[in-house]
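Retro notes (design track)

What went well: tokenization of the new backbones is finally stable.
What didn't: we kept losing track of which sequence belonged to which structure.
Fix going forward: every design gets posted as structure first, then sequence, in one message. First example under the new rule, 265 residues:
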């Protein structure tokens, strides 16, 4: 538990902090440590920006309830931001710039000088323009500064009793739409419903329904592909077409984060 002590101690000399908290394990452990060090001077802030699934928002509420930390919701729509909606390779940058601006505004209102997020060392190896945007806004990453790997975060979350310790990594629903294809409310809705349907029919936790101009491509762990028998596929075909998809297929290569982050020719 020395790593947890390092994280708690990171907050010890801070007066008041805001934690940008999603429904995942990384920001959950940051919020836990902040609350251990600062009590009610630690405030969790969850942004409902209309591209986060209800499942993620519910998870964020559950985490805050388990920790006992105060939670504030930021309510705005990224769909009003043309730079985000046009969905180029800098979509995540524009998303996080806007989030950073809202967090800074809220911090000023609550007289908070330090805003933190759940970025960890493993995140730094991927193409993550959103991380740079948060950094540009002065938002700090205690898990990076105290050198946490994802596996260590999960171990500690389990040891302190946080239910999200084994929750699969997730990202906003817009990440299911290939760069160059516009983000719309209609697409986000059918993606969210689609993923919920797949999870209900298969009991799988890690599911992506990619939206290729209305065609649904389902990604799951490669080892789990055989469970998609004729019965399940028939049900998925029927139900996903009802919610607006034109066709349904399983990605035979299996799930891999960021797979569709390529600019179409």
């Amino acid at each position: 538990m020395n790593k947890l002590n390092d994280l708690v101690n990171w907050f010890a000399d801070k007066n008041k902090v805001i934690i940008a908290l999603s429904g995942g394990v990384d920001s959950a452990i940051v919020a836990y440590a902040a609350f251990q060090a600062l009590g009610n001077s630690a405030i969790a802030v969850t942004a409902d920006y209309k591209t986060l699934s209800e499942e993620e928002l519910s998870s964020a509420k559950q985490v805050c309830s388990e920790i006992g930390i105060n939670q504030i919701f930021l309510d705005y729509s990224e769909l009003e931001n043309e730079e985000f909606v046009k969905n180029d390779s800098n979509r995540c940058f524009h998303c996080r710039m806007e989030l950073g601006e809202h967090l800074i505004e809220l911090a000023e209102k609550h007289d908070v000088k330090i805003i933190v997020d759940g970025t960890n060392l493993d995140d730094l190896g991927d193409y993550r323009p959103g991380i740079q945007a948060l950094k540009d806004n002065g938002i700090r990453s205690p898990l990076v500064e105290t050198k946490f790997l994802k596996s260590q975060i999960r171990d500690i979350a389990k040891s302190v009793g946080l239910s999200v310790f084994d929750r699969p990594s997730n990202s906003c629903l817009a990440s299911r739409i290939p760069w160059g294809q516009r983000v719309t409310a209609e697409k986000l809705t059918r993606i969210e419903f689609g993923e919920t349907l797949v999870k209900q029919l298969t009991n799988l936790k890690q599911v992506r329904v990619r939206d290729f101009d209305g065609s649904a491509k389902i990604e799951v762990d490669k080892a789990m592909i055989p469970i998609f028998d004729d019965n399940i596929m028939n049900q998925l075909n029927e139900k996903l077409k009802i919610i607006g998809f034109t066709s349904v297929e399983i990605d035979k290569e299996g799930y891999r984060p960021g797979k569709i982050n390529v600019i179409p020719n």
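Added context from the reviewer: The domain at 2-166 is CATH 3.40.50.620 (Rossmann fold).
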